[in-house]
Amino acid sequence: MSILLRNMRQIVLVMAGLVCMSFPALASDEAWEIWNSEGVHALMRHAIAPGTGDPANFTLGDCTTQRNLNETGREQARSTGTVIRDNGIQITSVLTSQWCRCVETAELLDLGPVREEPALNSFFRDRSTEATQTRQIKQQLSSLPATEKALLVTHQVNITALTGIYPRSGEIILVQMADDAAELKVLARLMP
After folding, report:
1. Model pLDDT for residues 149-177, shown as the tens digit of each residue
2. Whole-number Cα distances in Å, 164 to 59, 65, 156, 158
3. 63 to each of 98, 125, 144, 145, 166, how far by Cα in Å?
4. Residues 92-115: pLDDT tens digits?
5. Which residues on neighbouring strands pair with residue 42, listed in sequence order?
6. Which residue from 19, 91, 159, 163 puts its CA 20 to 30 A from 142's CA?
7. Residues in CB range of 114: below 8 A, 6 or more apart
8. How many other CB atoms are there within 10 angstroms of residue 132's CB atom?
């Protein structure tokens, strides 16, 4: 059984790589210009937190039971916030998953007050909430005025469900709601 699981994991990783290749990253200058446009929001995978998933004793609100940022991840989050500010991006709201690694990433970005949003929580262990959470995030983004610029710090599974992209730790996906307000359009990818 473990050989089957190992092979399945390798297949998933290869497929994820192919999905990533289908959305090429734009040159940084062009991506920053896109982000400064009205109606463009950002999905960010939390900064580097070694490992996969969470320990069996995971408890929401208890960081000692979770996979957390390491010092490299903390520095990644701080420097990403600096690069965002240096490029003149004015974030009006920072929303985050309630997982400690996301909350810490959002806080270390230092882009404004951070608000926890349960719809951004990981559904890695329980895929039964994927459709509902994905719909809730799309609804929130479509309800924002064009002058708002939201940054959502979340998990790989959430970003993949929203965009089809398998993001790297700390990667930012720039999105805009489609005209029908039902789907997200991927505009650019950034790895500040």
Report:
1. 999 999 999 999 999 999 999 999 999 99
2. 28, 29, 10, 10
3. 10, 17, 31, 34, 25
4. 999 999 999 999 999 999 999 999
5. 151, 174
6. 19
7. 94, 95, 96, 103, 106, 107
8. 11
Report the SS3 class of residue 185: strand
User: Whole-angstrom Cα distance, residue 133 to residue 103?
Assistant: 18
HSE value, Cβ hemisphere, 13 Å, CA-based, for 175: 26
Identify whether the C-beta of residue 178 lies closer than 8 Å to the C-beta of residue 38. Answer: no
CB contact set of 118 (below 8 Å; sequence gap of 6+): 98
| First and final C-alpha spacing in the chain | 40
- From CA 143, how far away is CA 160, in angstroms rounded? 21
Please answer whether residues 191 and 48 qualify as being in contact, where contact means their C-beta atoms are separated by less than 8 angstroms: no
* Radius of gyration of the chain measured on its C-alpha atoms: 16
- Burial of 155 (C-beta count, 10 Å sphere; 0-12/13-18/19+): buried
Encoding tokens for residue 32? 């920053």
Structure-block tokens of residue 1: 């059984």
Amino acid at 157: V
Cα 113 off chain centre by = 17
pTM: 0.85
Q: Where are the beta strands (DSSP E) in 74-138?
A: 93-96, 114-116
Q: Which residue pairs from 27-31 have beta carbons closer than 8 angstroms and sit at least 24 positions apart in sequence? A: 28/190, 30/188, 31/174, 31/188, 31/189, 31/190
